[in-house]
Amino acid sequence: MEILENKLTTVDTEQRLDELAKRHAAAGNVGIQILNMVGGQAEGLLDRLPSGIRDRMGDGAEQALRLAMNAAQRSRGVVGEQPAWLTRVVTTAMGAAGGFGGLPSAMAELPVTTTILLRAIQDVAIEHGFNPEEQGVMFDCIQVLAAAGPLDHDDGSDIAFLSTRLAMTGATLQALVARVAPRLATVLGQKLAAQTVPVLGAAAGAATNYAYTSYYQQMAQVHFGLRRLAIEADRDHAELVEDFRKRVARDPLHRA
Length: 256
Known about the structure:
Oligomer: single chain
Order of helices and strands: HHHHHHHHHH
Helix content: over 70%
Number of helices: 10
């Protein structure tokens, strides 16, 4: 394997950081269109769900994430990496089907969509030269799902996941799933509420799934792009994340 003798220049690194900041902005912007469609704010979406559904979202999200981990890994032996656009087409069609049948079909669609989202994140990891079967990379893929979600874009909460890093063990992975599940429950609850808006039905379901897939693909590009950049620029990852955070905070063009 050829080893690069020269690390990236400062100018190259700054350019790559700018590109990643633009991806970060693009990730959040798509959710605004969904909120305009359903007529409301992200914070109020969960109130539209029946209380019994809201109470079960926590356990449902953790179960969906555990199933998604196993299913996404198994699918790699059957179906290779998919183009990002094809993944968006698949999830959009699934969202339409889920929204068309109302709340029951939307609930049934959630675990499948979660699996495809995780698989899409793994595909981005491979694109950047990482092996999703390695425990550390598996950790990273789940961490991407800890981002805020497209309907609740926040420059603080959707960057926080970038800097978290733990020594990976089986127990740590299970603890990570338990920690990510509550945030994922909120994100999936917002999705469920948005795609079951009366009248809109299938259209809201399709648009919501498109937004979610686009969001997590872009956030995965940011996450693994920063990890790859840290390697190629020979920079400390935490330091690079902090530079990225400051760039997003100071530049209005990079904010949703």
